[in-house]
Design a protein that fits this description.
5 helices; nine-stranded mixed beta sheet; alpha/beta; 19% helix; ten-stranded mixed beta sheet; 2 domains
Amino acid sequence: MADRDHDGGKRRRRSSIVLPLVLILLGVLLLLSNFGLINWSIWTAIARFWPLILIALGLELILGRGSVSTSIIIIIVLIIIAGSGFALRSPTARGAITRTRVQKPLSGATSADIEIKMGVGTLCLSSLQDSSDLISGTVDTAVGEWLTEDFKIIADEAHLVLGTENRNVLFDFNFFGLGRQPARNWDLMLNEDIPISLTVHTGVGESRIDLERILATDVEVRTGVGRTDLTLPATGHAKVTLSGGVGETVIRIPKGVAASIRTKTGIGSVQIYGDYTRINDEYISPNFDTAENRVELEVKGGVGSIEIRG
């Protein structure tokens, strides 16, 4: 039998306030970011506190949704937890990093398939000139985190998966992003003389991916949280897919490269600058079909702004 109020009518249960509040907050921050009133780096800090959404939903289920006082209690608890997260910052974490040298030889490989799974930090990816190595550079890891490398050569094709793992994840505050994140840099260079199929997960932080001199044939970039600056290959025929995350993304198409651009917007904006003819949701260079150097670009918008400069 349905609950009724004193007047005999059915009692209406309040719907959840957590998700609407999260959407309102994200919308306000995106608006302020687009107007340049706050820096896009704020999304890195916000990402560290994503478990609070789960806590808030759990509190609503326990305490119920029947009154404004319940909502006030939930908000107070979240503020206390967030404050505790800042208090739990490790005083030595900023300098507690390990720098690992990454260097893999070509060993006769004539093509490569590379996947880079960035965690937290700054990624700088560029080209490696006149080298017998497939990849060269350094990767920083924090306490409780270590670099994983899966490298093999099959039928003249090199395969490399580069990422990180974290130990003691059930008790490590940094796994949930509540502890202070030390400054970590991934500084990597790829061979520019062989065709490469490349997949990059940018993680949380700033990423600068310069593929202008790299013979990248198939590229997939999945942005995380933060700013991403991507320069596309200048030679050959490349197929590039970018899936937007949270933050600002700038895609640069080198001079002399024709492009076919397809966009699917998310919660944010996609702006395209250059000499293109628009047909529905596709932007095409006038000489795309006959161009020696061209790129097929598919952009799936996330939360934030994506700017394509031709």
